[in-house]
Write a structure and sequence with these properties.
With 389 residues, the chain is of the alpha+beta class. It has ten helices and twelve strands. Strand 11 and strand 12 form a beta hairpin. The longest helix has 35 residues. Bound molecules: flavin-adenine dinucleotide.
């Protein structure tokens, strides 16, 4: 396979500024040089490529669309393009960057005290510190409002008790953003690794997101000082606002995975010959799949770009982001399935990236609001009727 040069059927590049194309090129080169050669081994062995963390920090990938505290201050379109390129490499790597930026740096930046921002943002930006975001619990996934993790005041401190699960970066995180129910409603806490009463354990046996660490977090009479609470995060809308940031990145990221699958299949079908020594790409049924994929990728690109431009002028709403996430993830999953098919038996081999993307995208469909939940968000937006219960 030749080096990845992007997928641009509709001259969407002409809608990007020179700076945006430069940011994308930097991320693309990083993925080509540092991710593509090793990701297959990491995926097979179930290991996260830790060595890439400082490099991604230096390139400004963490909290790229935040300003100050060492952050790159990029536009949301530039940030989205980085996510796209990273997920072309692997959804697990993009998940790491999404969690670090959108789910850890963003809440500290938006809801944290000045002291919390000064202390944590520069370290997280550079990758010297790693963060995780603990919202999901064993009994509460799609409905985080039911959470049972409790924070109770004790003098000037807070005592946390409860369980979080399916937490990306959990056991490798220096700092966990943890959401708990208190007498003041849902509040966010910064819990440092090594705090007494806080422990983590990794989830093994995943057949998806194998190059990403996923853990459970346990809090047993875990005492944290009052200064560990995010002072401005009040109520469930705070963690939900973080999820909106991350979902925006997912809406872009999955285009990268889809492009990789499509381009792999396109090149393969031009070379692979069957029946009268003709490339399989010459058959109408094969072309129909390629045509479907390039059309859907193009529509997803337009949606993501428009979402990015709207976010840059603060006009985007959570219901828009739900459509972006739901549509683009479903599109990418279908591209992965069709591409897998077009490679025949080779489609199941790890020599090609398709099966890895396909397995990863099954997680991406579930996390950050399942396809169903985003369907209901869109349904509520157009009818005014909430159908979650
Ligand atoms: C690899 C991985 C990494 C993750 N990382 C994180 C992380 O860093 N932090 C974090 O907090 N969480 C994380 N998650 C958890 C993720 O957000 C949840 O898995 C997700 O919210 C779904 O919750 P659940 O798995 O409990 O499924 P459930 O909520 O039990 O849903 C199961 C099925 O029921 C459907 N369903 C539920 N309610 C409704 C309804 N009202 N109407 C229609 N259908 C419904 C769902 O759509 C789904 O199809 C991660 C998950 C995975 C797999």
């Amino acid at each position: 396979m030749s080096a990845f040069r992007g997928v641009d059927y509709f001259h969407i590049d002409s809608l990007l500024s020179e700076e945006e194309r430069l940011v994308r090129q930097t991320a693309r080169q990083f993925v080509e040089d540092r991710v593509v050669p090793n990701i297959r081994q990491h995926y097979n062995e179930g290991t996260f490529p830790h060595d890439l963390v400082p490099e991604m920090g230096e390139l400004g990938f963490f909290g790229a669309n935040l300003e100050g505290y060492g952050c790159a201050g990029m536009s949301n379109v530039e940030y989205g393009l980085i996510m796209q390129e990273l997920e072309r490499g692997d959804s697990g790597l993009r998940s790491f960057v999404s969690v670090q930026g959108a789910l850890v740096m963003y809440p500290i930046y938006t809801y944290g005290s000045e002291e919390q921002k000064q202390r944590w943002l520069p370290q997280l930006q550079s990758g010297k510190a790693i963060g995780c975001f603990g919202l999901t619990e064993p009994g509460f996934g799609s409905n985080p409002g039911g959470m049972t993790t409790r924070g109770v005041r004790d003098g000037g401190d807070w005592i946390l008790n409860g369980e979080k699960t399916w937490i990306t970066n959990g056991s490798i995180a220096d700092i966990a953003v943890v959401w708990a129910r208190t007498e003041e409603g849902v509040r966010g806490f910064l819990v440092e690794r090594g705090t007494k009463g806080y422990s983590t354990s990794d989830i093994h046996g995943k057949l998806s997101m194998r190059a990403s660490v996923t853990s459970s977090l346990s809090f047993s009479d875990c005492r944290v000082p009052a200064s560990a609470m995010l002072p401005e995060a009040k109520g469930l809308k705070a963690p939900l606002s973080c999820l909106s940031q991350a979902r925006f990145g997912i809406g872009w990221g999955v285009i990268g995975a889809a492009m990789d699958c499509y381009e792999t299949a396109r090149q393969y079908t031009m070379l692979r010959k069957q029946f009268d020594d003709k490339p399989i790409a010459s058959h109408q049924l094969v072309q129909e799949k390629l045509a479907w994929m390039i059309t859907e990728i193009t529509k997803a690109q337009v949606l993501a770009l428009h979402a990015g431009r709207m976010k840059d002028v603060n006009k985007i709403e959570p219901a828009h982001i739900s459509m972006l996430k739901r549509n683009n993830v479903a599109m990418a999953l279908e591209c992965a399935r069709l591409s897998r098919d077009l490679l025949g038996a080779n489609g199941i081999m790890d020599e090609y990236p398709i099966m890895r993307h396909l397995c990863n995208l099954e997680t991406v469909k579930t996390y950050e609001g399942t396809d169903h939940i985003h369907t209901l968000v869109i349904g509520e937006r157009v009818t005014g009727i909430a159908a979650y219960k």
